Structures are given as C-alpha cells and as structure tokens.
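Tip: read the tokens left to right.
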C-alpha cells in the first residue's frame, strides 16, 4: 500500500482557506480583493485547494470550506505521480528543419515537440506558437534548423516520473504552457533523457478518473 504523500500548503494558500472559512461562500474576485491580488494570480492556488478537497466551488455561488482538510480527495490526488499518467514524448533532432518539425507536429497530432541532440539529450522545446511565428514572413522553412527558434536549456521547465502530478499541474498553470517533458538524468555525464510528456490532456484524464472514482 502506498504511503499518502502530503502537500505542504503555502502561506497564501493557508490565508485563502482562512478567508473562505470566515466568509464563504465567497467568489474568487472577492478573495483576491482581500489579499490585494489579481484573480489570475490566485487561480493556481484555488485550483490546488479545490482539487485537494480543502475547498469546493459552485457556479455563481463561489468557494466554500469543506471541513475535510483535504482528507478524501487529497489522499487520492497526493498519491498520483507523473509516471502513472505521462504520455509518449515526440522528439525531433536539433538539426531538423522547421518544415520537418511542422510536419511532425501535424502527423503526430501534438502541440509540443522536444528537441534532442546527437546524444539524445534534451536541448530545447518547440511549441505551436514557435512554429507559427517562424512560418510568418519569407523564411526558408526547409533550410532553417529548429535550433534557431526553440526554447533552450536552461529555460525549460521539466518534471520527473516520481513528481506529484498536482505539483506538475501547478507548473503548467504558472508557466501558462501546454506540456512538460518528463526527464531522467543520464547515468553518466550531464544532460537529461526525455522519457515522457505531461500535458493538459493528461491532467484532464486524471480529473475524469477522480470524478468517476476510477483512481486506485
């Protein structure tokens, strides 16, 4: 039997719980006003507190404290690690052309490509926006390497197979990105091997499993 992993709440998340306890039901905008923050800034915290079972939310009503201290849904969520929901990554070589990357993205039906070097080590990431931006204008896409337009290390947000998926979900929200590479450090030398990907679709599948009580 797995040991239940606990999420340590941030000071702001504790403040949100206290505000909802005292004033619930209360809207996200009202919570943000009490903390002198924007609603967008609070969105990741509210998502985590709701997903963990500390808070519940009803349309046109607002947030209210469940009194469960995250004891039910939290136990399920806090047991889920990335490895259980990750998908197969789609990678391209850093020498590939932008045209080839666009074809790969279309054929594989993904929104993010991971770029690796000759040693299969992660060196960059390509998003739909990167490829769309490159396709505008008069650039020769067949000869332009993806290394010119990709996001490079160390500016890549990554995760590992044993990371809690709820923590990774927060990274997706905070960074406003569609996918993260799941990496494993090479045994010898530096660099990371791409072993999977976590996307908003994976997170949605987790939520569906939780709602249908299929999560073990």
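Filled-in amino acids:
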């Amino acid at each position: 039997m797995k040991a239940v992993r606990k999420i340590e709440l941030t000071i702001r998340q504790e403040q949100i719980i206290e505000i909802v306890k005292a004033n619930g039901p209360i809207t996200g905008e009202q919570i943000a006003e009490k903390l002198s923050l924007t609603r967008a800034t609070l969105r990741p915290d509210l998502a985590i507190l709701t997903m963990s079972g500390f808070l519940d939310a009803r349309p046109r009503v607002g947030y209210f404290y469940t009194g469960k201290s995250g004891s039910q849904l939290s136990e399920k969520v806090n047991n889920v690690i990335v490895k259980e929901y990750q998908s197969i990554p789609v990678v391209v070589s850093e020498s590939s052309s932008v045209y080839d990357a666009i074809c790969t993205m279309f054929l594989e039906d993904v929104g993010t490509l991971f770029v690796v070097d000759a040693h299969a080590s992660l060196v960059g990431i390509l998003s739909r926006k990167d490829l769309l931006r490159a396709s505008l204008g008069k650039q020769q896409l067949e000869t332009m390497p993806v290394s010119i337009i990709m996001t490079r290390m160390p500016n890549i947000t990554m995760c590992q197979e044993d990371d809690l998926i709820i923590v990774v979900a927060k990274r997706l929200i905070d960074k406003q990105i569609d996918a993260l590479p799941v990496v494993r450090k090479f045994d010898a030398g530096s660099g990371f091997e791409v072993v999977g990907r976590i996307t908003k679709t994976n997170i949605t599948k987790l939520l569906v499993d939780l709602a249908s009580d299929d999560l073990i």
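The first strand starts at residue 55 and ends at 58. The two ends are 11 Å apart (CA to CA).
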